[in-house]
Amino acid sequence: MGGLVTSGGGVVPAYKRQLVNSQRVAFAASITDDGWPVASLLTSGDARPLLTADGEAARLSVRLPSEAGPGFACPSLRAHLLRPDAPAAFIAMDFESRLRFRVQGRVAAHDGQQPELIELATSETFPNCSAFIPKIELATVAAAARPQPTPAVSSSLSDEQAALVGSVCSFFVASAAPVRRPAATTTHTLHLPSTGNTASPRRCCPPHRWLGGSQDCASADISHRGGQQGFLRVRDDGATLSWPDYPGNGSFMTLGNLTAYPKASLLLPFLPHGKMLQIRGTATVSWDPDSADDGAERQVNVAVEEVVETGGMAELYSWRLVETSNFAPACSALAGAQPAPQRRFVTVTRAKDVAEDVALFKLDTNGKGTLPYVPGQHVTLRVPVNEGSEPLTRSWTIVENPTLLLPSYTNSQVNIAVKRDDGGGGASVWMHDELRDGDELELQGVEGAFVMDVLSPGFAATVPRKLLLLSAGIGITPFVSMLLALQASAPLRRSDRQSADATDIVLLHSTRRMSQVPYQQKLEALADGSEEWSGGSFSVRIEWVITGQEGAGRVGAEGIAAAVPDVAAREVMLCGPPSYMEDMFAALGGLGVGPERIRTESFLM
């Protein structure tokens, strides 16, 4: 599975609405009157969310913190967001599960009776992958009256501020897309590196036309950048900032904006001593890999023009870095650091076919590192589809691990299931048709929060007593991984709770043909013998929905209720194509299952 998943315009899809609507910290961007992007964060001092996505229309309600009270790290942004038709962007981040969702649009309405509420007419809504997002514990602080701190403004970074910049592993970039001018007589071509796409290069108007006010900006955007501490570098005695654009970026939304409209604003909210930095400057993108740091393919340089330092952030929110992303390479530019990091490769061997058009591939580090994982997680690989072109980045579920029960430091092999998709950009086709046993592919990392951690202490006591696994197509693979691991690890739980309160698991899977179901026979045997192999701790039942039969079609609320009568009492894990997940959210809602009880997975690159 892989590829960028969009929501089809400005409507936030149901399976991402819970993420958006639960935010008590949000990151926002707009455009100033003189045409500069500006970024800040908003916090909620109470239990109410900041963002509320409409379930039907392309609208986002935004609750702005009070002008006189706490909640705005940058009060000046409030004024920009209150302007009619102002471009605005928000990003909802869950640093615990490494999920993010971006929303762009324009301010459509401002409630004069409730000055803290604005309505955003959303034009673009889309998730991004979890790569490079650090795991951070982030919490708001209860609202309290406080004097607004006075920011310190300078034209370059001080030595102290440069040290703060060097400590970050996470920051945000606000950028803008210019208004197209049909009457313009000159254009320039934005040449992006080839990704195997046959589409012609994007064309846009020359950057120098767009250095005016906010009326020249069609949209605002805010995106996240992550890496190891030190990946954001200070150069030229504080006059320049730079960061590497790591492999995997195949959309170029931020880089496209910066190339066409080079004004940028950086937000650094996770700094010691309750400080926050906002840095604006003119950006240039170097597309030459030889000039990029740490094995990256591109590099962004920002000539600093203004630095705003604000204190007192500890009165708005608290944060603690748990771990950086394992996708991020080591930073080689820190004082006393090692040489530039080595890229990681795995040897790939096609093992067998596990379903129609689904093949199992074995990945092996050959003793060069380990591949620890939790059942349900996926690996991300770079696939050289076209010689001379930039490899495609794709993610596939780990479905088997022959060394699962051995100590994690010995894990050097995992197996992935790859479904051939002739319309999916070529990576899966290359894996099926072109890969030769023993070929090496670059490994970016193992990631994912959609998991069943069967080896964690006390797992049997914490897993929901009633669980519904709902999937379609190749979306079954995380559940294959979880169920096989659950069975394999059963001997470790012989002393766990007995059948009196056994966990009841139902897998309800939709497929066009049974021949397309990976591990069908193994799953059916697993379910039939579940009470025996689990010692009465687990009961597994499987229901197949054949959508390819005449008159069948996709399962709906009626079909779910018939197959799982007690669905309203269950926790749900959901994986499949976006349209399927959208339909399932609606069906489950009608059956009494709220979004807070539904966990979802989708691979985004």
Quick synopsis:
The protein is mainly beta and 605 residues long. The chain is built from 11 helices and 30 strands.
Features:
mainly beta, 8-stranded antiparallel β-sheet, 11 helices, globular, 605 residues, disordered N terminus, 7-stranded antiparallel β-sheet, Pnp Oxidase, Chain A, single chain, 30 strands, Rossmann fold, Elongation Factor Tu (Ef-tu), domain 3
CATH architecture annotation name of the largest domain: Roll
Spatial gap, N to C terminus: 10 Å
Q: What is Rg?
A: 25 Å
| Mean pLDDT over all positions | 82
| CATH class group of the largest domain | Mainly Beta
Total domain modules: 3
Contiguous uncertain segments of 5+ residues: 1-8, 183-212, 335-341
The tally of helices reads: 11
CATH superfamily of the largest domain: Electron Transport, Fmn-binding Protein, Chain A
| Strand count | 30
Structural features, described:
- With 605 residues, the protein is mainly beta.
- It folds into three domains: 292 residues, Pnp Oxidase, Chain A (Roll); 103 residues, Translation factors (Elongation Factor Tu (Ef-tu), domain 3), CATH 2.40.30.10; 143 residues, Nucleotide-binding domain of ferredoxin-NADP reductase (FNR) module (Rossmann fold, 3-Layer(aba) Sandwich), CATH 3.40.50.
- The protein is 14% helix and 36% strand.
- Strands 9, 10, 13, 14, 15, 16, 17 and 18 form an eight-stranded antiparallel sheet that branches. Strands 2-1-5-6-7-4-3 form a seven-stranded antiparallel sheet.
- The chain is globular, with a radius of gyration of 25 Å.
